[in-house]
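Slide 14.
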Amino acid sequence: MSDLEIVRTDYLDPVAREIVAAAMADLSGRYGGNGDDTPVDPAEFDPPTGSFLVAWLDGEPVACGGWRTHHQDPGVAEIKRVFTLDSARRRGVGLAVLRAIEESARAAGRGRAILETGSRQPEAIALYERVGYQLIPNFGHYKDEPDVRSYGRDL
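Slide 15: predicted structure.
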């Protein structure tokens, strides 16, 4: 991989918003609708109760992801908006972002990470399972949808 830098970025930063918009477009193509209607308050990604990261590869923003404190358990980080642009896929960027998210959550005192994904995102499922995430009972906005897959692992 070339020069990769992962930087904490405000969720409403224009660069972050651009990559999140690309993520929503990708999800919309897979599932229809707006992509993801999960309620998200940008302030949830502000330290110390969360963090949002943008990955830069060779000086270009190519991926994002973050965590917020899970509303039912302050010891749990809920991972959201993990996405890599097509141009940077299959280069280890997604894994690097996921590891940086986990490290940030662990440093903030979270002992577990959980996330939602969907059956139409096989590359995401493969990544999560490869690094030790296991299926858990569905939670969140899409918990009753047939395509949802919820995962968790101890940090």
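Speaker note: The mean pLDDT is 96.
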